[in-house]
Amino acid sequence: MSRVKEEDDLVTPGDMITDADALSATSGAYEENNKIYSKHLGTVHFNGQEVEVRPMSGRYMPEEGDTIIGEVTRVSYSRWTVEFNSAYEGSLNIADATDEYVDLDEDDLSDFFEVGDAVVIKVKSVTDGMDVDLSMKDKRCRKLEGGRVIGIAPSKVPRVIGKKGTMVKQINEKTNCNIIVGQNGQVWISGDKANLAARAVKKVEREAHTENLTDRISEWLEEELEGEK
Q1: Is 118 helix (H, G, I), strand (E, B) or coil?
Q2: Using one digit for the tens of pLDDT, what is the confidence trace for 168-198?
Q3: Nearest to 125 by CA among 87, 86, 155, 91
Q4: Could you give the domains of the chain?
Q5: Could you give the C-alpha distances from 221 to 123, 151, 192, 227, in angstroms and in order?
Q6: Which of 106, 36, 113, 57 has its CA nearest to residue 82?
């Protein structure tokens, strides 16, 4: 029993990565018949006993459990359609949107969410055919009021968040903004210095491959703030 693919190898959907029993699939990979396969086009990464496939730069591939930022694009009889920077779109059923009793013949679903609303929402499930079900039943999920949404490469999301949230926390604190980073690469920013916070996020995205980035972003923000005085 051994690995078929190595660290940083390029894989396509359905490629077998490993048949090693001791390894388990995480983001971008799945297990079938004691083997691990890739869900999409990307590069292989091993983290201890875990196997991950990181997507190539491009649009987001939804994963069950992800918290993302999307936009309501359609209101139907018992559900909403949400787009979220992906080739796919998701459905939010009324039962996954609220615990309130809703009379579908009497109540207007647009009273909850209407077309154009930005929402923090969770990926409830993804089928093999890429039907995506969404849910608002998580403490982080809510409709976003005000602010602005910018986009970054989904592959750069971990760098923008930082280890234990250190990167986004320092941008929050130094700009006095509220920032929410969706796993789909959509970033919501609200606050008086939202433009500076947005520039900082984009700078992290551009320089994600460099070392000591957290310290350098901190210094850069201090210089920018000093220059505004």
Answers
A1: strand
A2: 999 999 999 999 999 999 999 999 999 999 9
A3: 91
A4: 10-55 (2.40.50.100), 67-144 (2.40.50.140), 148-228 (3.30.1370.10)
A5: 33, 20, 15, 10
A6: 113
Whether pLDDT at 57 is above 70: no
pLDDT digits (tens, 9 = 90+) for 10-49: 888 889 999 888 899 988 889 999 899 998 777 888 888 8
DSSP run (H or E) holding 228 = helix 213-228
Cβ atoms within 10 Å, residue 102: 17
Give all strands of the β-sheet with 16-18 in edge-to-edge order. Answer: 16-18, 35-38, 29-32
Q: For residues 163 and 103, give the distance between their C-alpha atoms in angstroms, rounded to a whole number.
A: 45
Cα dihedral value 99, 100, 103, 108, nearest 10: -100
| Strand ranges in the chain using DSSP code E only, listed in sequence order | 10-11, 16-18, 24-25, 29-32, 35-38, 42-47, 50-55, 67-75, 79-83, 89-93, 118-126, 132-135, 142-144, 148-151, 178-181, 186-190
Cβ atoms 199, 155 nearer than 8 A: no
Mean pLDDT of the chain: 90
Q: What is the C-alpha to C-alpha distance for residues 34 and 19, in angstroms, rounded to an integer?
A: 6
The residue among 140, 141, 179, 139 whose CA lies nearest residue 160 is 179
